[in-house]
């Protein structure tokens, strides 16, 4: 009997020997490139893996590495008929992906940095294996993009769509209802289409599943596109039906019964039935035979465009060395910029506002904006003699990076998974970004957000991120400040929220100058 280690090595040795000799060195170099990618950008890969494991929205990604291995196995024998070669334009794409990662790192945008490391893995294949081999494994490479945990950004839009579908179905079913943003009131209760009810989990998983089925089961592009459209539309519509069903049941059996029914039936059974319905609808249109080859190597090798592209050759070792140098440059630049922090005062204060007095903060419903990673935060309340009430939230940051972002997703006036939910975006009063938000009660708030960094004064999160990226690229030290002016609305005995905010801004003078005074500690 062979020792265990020899028993394991023997099949691996035979498998390696079965690979054409021309592939040995490129595969070893590609393995080194990918190992270096993981080592240099370990924080990004670790953050992705933690999201796959910890977030139910992305648990399905745990299956994607196995799906990728299976997709490669379907193509591997055909791919090995292609002779790999180094290709220098792949270095251009690698540097572009690395620069994209750098910009994401500067902006503190984890989605961009994670996408950047996956794109660098793609570019490594192009650089070391060449255009023909890369085209042969094009779909598995494209499917790697699903490793990036993306989709939470869709939650607000999906909440709005779900609420609209729910209202339409309630009207058809004869249930009287009133909607404000994502809050629905019926005779049976007060309901919120919360983040967890947006349907984003099922939509993201269904898109990944739909892309796989579209490639494996269809050859015709119109049929693939139609199936992907069905894979997107069906979970969105189904989630609207789910929300309507929960409210409809609550009308007749009570909210507690509806909540339990939603968790058991809709959480586990309903969407399985929806997936089965999608597959059952598409089954008759599958046009790829079970024994069809996934790629046509003869067409790839005879393609004139690919033939011309192969003339742009580079030695694989030189390609690997160039990628290593570029990756070290980008990570070094990012590390240097990350050390830059603007000097801040040891303490900041809410300045006096003419005609206004600071009082104890006592909201009708607890409200506290989220400012993760800020060095200083303040939350106070001001009133004037006319009965206007304005709450002021201030956050001051020495630098902007992942986990320390003034405009990060879920930061600011409407913290993700908090008690408050977005209702609408009315016109701003003083050049910021206005949000009307609501919580149970219902209690309404009007909040206007402003950002200040260097010479930038804006309510635009996009403009703030561009400013932060410019600062890091040019190694400039600028503090970043968030100001949120807010007041409760539709409160008996108080003036309207817009009137209160307008009066406060008039008293403070130019908002940017007021923010500068706070940031200076004066």
Automatic annotation (TrEMBL):
One of its GO terms (biological process) is proteolysis. GO terms for cellular component: plasma membrane. GO terms for molecular function: peptidase activity. The chain crosses the membrane at residues 12-36, 56-74, 86-103, 123-148, 160-179, 199-218, 225-245, 265-286, 319-338. It is a multi-pass membrane protein. Pfam families: DUF3485 (PF11984), Exosortase_EpsH (PF09721). It is found in: Cell membrane. Keywords: Cell membrane, Hydrolase, Membrane, Protease, Transmembrane, Transmembrane helix. Signal peptide: none annotated. Residues 325-510 form the Methanolan biosynthesis EpsI domain. It comes from the Bacteria. This is Exosortase A. The lineage of its organism: Bacteria, Pseudomonadati, Pseudomonadota, Alphaproteobacteria, Sphingomonadales.
